[in-house]
């Protein structure tokens, strides 16, 4: 189970790596049903106003956040999704059921 201290540490590390628009916790941790083998599901929206122009740029965005929480991930598995603000808005506008569920059932940490 993810404690409040662990949530604060995750948010702090993510925010120290890059300007952040939103951080969502979703899945079993957000639902309160996490067990001993559960991972931590995070969706991070970067405060960048452009779409990544290449796979390399998209990967760099992911790696920036992933590296910031690497030592936490060694203790607790983390499933991480990273989007820029326009990417997230485009996915949301497309009617993505996944994003709708994250917005409805997830917990905004930032």
TrEMBL record:
<protein>
    <submittedName>
        <fullName>Nucleotidyltransferase domain-containing protein</fullName>
    </submittedName>
</protein>
<dbReference type="InterPro" id="IPR043519">
    <property type="entry name" value="NT_sf"/>
</dbReference>
<keyword id="KW-0808">Transferase</keyword>
<dbReference type="InterPro" id="IPR002934">
    <property type="entry name" value="Polymerase_NTP_transf_dom"/>
</dbReference>
<dbReference type="GO" id="GO:0016779">
    <property type="term" value="F:nucleotidyltransferase activity"/>
</dbReference>
<feature type="domain" description="Polymerase nucleotidyl transferase">
    <location>
        <begin position="9"/>
        <end position="96"/>
    </location>
</feature>
<dbReference type="Pfam" id="PF01909">
    <property type="entry name" value="NTP_transf_2"/>
</dbReference>
<dbReference type="InterPro" id="IPR052548">
    <property type="entry name" value="Type_VII_TA_antitoxin"/>
</dbReference>
